[in-house]
Amino acid sequence: MMKKLGFGCMRLPLLDANDQTSVDMEQMNRMVDTFLERGFTYFDTALPYHAYHSELFVREALVKRHPRESFKLATKLPPRMLKTEQDQQSIFDEQLEKCGVDFFDYYLLHNLGVSSYAQAKKFSCFDFVLRKKQDGLIRQLGMSFHDTPELLEEILARHHQELDFVQLQINYIDWENPGIQSRRCYEIARKYGLPVIVMEPCKGGSLAIVPDKAAALMRSHNPTASIPSWAIRYAASLEGVLMVLSGMSTLEQVLDNTAYMADFTPLNAEEHAIIRQAVDIINADTAVACTNCRYCVEHCPSDIPIPDYFALYNSSRRATSSNNSSQYVYYLNMAAKHGKASDCIACRACEDVCPQHLEVSEYMKDVSKVFDNGPGLPSDRPGKA
Asked: What residues does the 4Fe-4S ferredoxin-type domain cover (predicted)?
């Protein structure tokens, strides 16, 4: 039996926060080594992560430095990127080469939603990955999903016998969220008897730093437990959960996560009650539920760093008048190199790829009201046409 914690390779340590390809390989090597030394084996990556470089970083830190039998590797085929049915073969071959492996332990159809599922049907993606499994190039076959329970029901009714697992966004803040509906998606997966791999247990890090009142509740129960541990243990406590992925960015996060997940203990009734109280506090405190997945960024014609602006906006909403000015400074620096919030043309290209189904163009109006009238914001961006 594998330990229930997986190493998500979507948020690797960076030397330059503005460059997704500037991964700190020295720190990543230590993180991978520590993860394996503590008995954990599952690594999850995907073609688009880290500006299409994550699989290469995984090869360097993991595959080249450790025996193949010592780890399980997962990556994903993105139907949204396909232009022809033949593209699947070229992408799969590229992934084998980039990862430096002869087969994938786990392989997923990536981020199935309305448009990507249409692509998957158009190009017979399920048939393609099944052939790869029959050929021994895939050991376990699954799909990751970011859409409505109704669509999940439609897909699984047709394909559940072909799948070995489903990867779902599950965390305590999204369990009853009407936009995400984690509970209903989880129940549908279980209805079809499919094991669940959990992604976004900390919702892109937002459940690692919770409002002070929620943090106080958690610490009063267990002063030594980290705030993220509550979120990961919550997901891991669900029946049928095979693995919980954590997108770890520092060695400290690896040490913390592997410490409490080494001998995993499910949440008890009192801890579940604390979580329910924390949900009410967090919901009252969060303006935009962005997870910083950054799928939206490459689709923005105005070059707006959408997740970064949302993070600043959320911080500004929580800030007191004495410390809010720092948010303006960060915004000024970003707006000097990228599009301002007011540059949004409401094309909604970002909304089509947002796993959280956020009304980005509407939220961007709120961000603009807060920051674009701030002191000293330039009307033109140097170096931008």
From this structure: 280-310, 334-363
Task: Write the pLDDT tens digit of every residue in 96-144.
Answer: 999 999 999 999 999 998 889 999 999 999 999 999 999 999 999 999 9
**Residue 76, H or E segment:** strand 72-77
Number of helices followed by number of strands (H, E) in the chain: 16, 8
pTM: predicted TM-score of the whole model, two decimal places: 0.81
Q: How far is CA 372 from CA 199, 301, 313, 379, in A?
A: 34, 19, 12, 9
Residue in 131, 68, 54 with CA at minimum distance from that of residue 98: 54
Residues 22-34: what's their mean pLDDT? 98
pLDDT of residue 377: 41
Phi, psi angles (nearest 5°) of residue 73: -120, 130
Identity at 115, one-letter amino acid code:
S
Tokens of 292: 């910083």
When the candidates are 3.30.360.10, 3.40.50.720, 3.20.20.100, 3.40.190.10, the CATH number that belongs to 5-276 is 3.20.20.100
